[in-house]
Amino acid sequence: MEFTFNAFYTLIAAVIVLLLGRFLVNNIDFLRRYNIPEPVAGGLVAAVVSLIVHNFWGYSITTSSALQTSFMLIFFASIGLSANFAKLREGGIGLVIFLIAISLFIIVQNFVGISLATVLGIDPLIGMIAGSITLTGGHGTAGAWGEILEVEHGIQGALALGMASATFGLIIGGIIGGPLAKLLINRYQLATPSTDAQIEQRDNTPVEPVPGEFVPFEYPHQVRLITADNAITTLGLFAACLAFAEFMTGYAKGTLFELPTFVWALAGGVILRNVLEGIFKVTIFDRAIDVFGNASLSLYLAMALLSLKLWQLADLAGPLMVILGAQTITMALYAAFITFRVMGKNYDAAVLAAGHCGFGMGATPTAVANMQAITNMYGASHKAFLIVPLCGAFFVDLINATVIQVILKFFV
Fold it and tell me: What stretches pass through the bilayer (predicted)?
């Protein structure tokens, strides 16, 4: 029997998952030591409980996908609204190098998937499903390309395989990022972990509104001083971004400019912020954007993991599990030996490697959560929080779509 949670019950359940995750991370040394994000910790427990209930009693729940999507869009809009052109310039050559590194990884990811599929005697396109389509692309890209592969390329069950692979990637991306960064930080003695007292003192110290130095998402638990007026104005900006995203998604459908809705939400944020700030000299309340963005990030991840049906992963064919396992190892090795090294082999590079694991296997929200878990323990990384949200949310989807199109031409 399946129970459907409406938006109110879904929100309540997500908050409970977040509180559970916070309790687990604060009280289990292993989770705190290896920087497992709170939504991932709580979400996995909820998913396991759901699996047990389903297997023994046959009950399952379906959460509100509309609410989950809304929080995802608000998160991506917050990235766009935080991106003024001055901050983009701060990324400098590091932004370009990181883009090159993740572009090469998308090619590597598809090479691994297609090669192993060929060796295992299954359709090479299934290797792409277990490649950048679902891992770098996430559930949205998996859904879009799953239908195309089923209809135009005859891959039966492509949509189901894609969703299961994306689910696997979302879980793994949130698990390997923190431990990998911790390993790199300790191996090269890049930073010293903060004590519990230091973390508590920092979180209770309000963020000061220093122009040009504010970087969003770094410390989600730190106090942000905002007013009701700031909050109302910022909510209006978010509403404008989501309206723009909905309009552009429909307008661009079937054209060369067809993009996922969340990309349009991010682009709308970038355009709106820079037009208001640069032309009309309107003050943008970064702290309010940060509060709403962090809240949306946590709630989205909690809902995504709460809605996982782990029993669907049991239906994955053996060869697909082999490919996904190989992709996990490839991601970890690439982040450690390529991403970390080309980005400078320093603390920022370690945080960037954790972020790459997040969106290279799962999604940009997972990448940000990975980095938050690291910086909460070891300290700020402005560079990582400037580069990863924009690369993971915007540029990587454009690059991924291009690579997928080029590869598919060989199978037409």
Answer: 6-28, 40-59, 65-86, 93-122, 158-181, 231-251, 257-276, 288-308, 320-340, 384-408
Sorted by sequence, the CB contacts under 8 Å of residue 232 that are 6+ apart come out as: none
Nearest to 395 by CA among 366, 369, 356, 347: 356
Residue 7: inside a domain: no
- Cα radius of gyration rounded to whole Å, the chain: 20
Eight-class DSSP state of 60? E
186 falls within a domain: yes
Distance CA 323, CA 263 (A): 28
Distance (Å) of CA 237 to CA 127, 244, 285: 41, 11, 10
Examine residue 109 and state whether it is found in any structural domain, yes or no: yes
Q: Please report whether residue 120 resides in a domain.
A: yes
What's the gap between Cα 122 and its chain centre? 30
Q: Residue 19's Cα: distance from chain center in Å?
A: 20
pTM: 0.87
- Report yes or no: 242 and 77 within 8 Å, Cβ to Cβ: yes
Provide the residue range defining the domain that includes 346. Answer: 71-289+305-411
Angle between helices 382-390 and 347-361 (to 10 degrees): 20
pLDDT tens digits for range 122-174? 889 889 999 999 999 887 778 777 777 887 788 877 877 887 788 889 889 99
The secondary structure element, H or E, covering residue 62 is strand 60-62
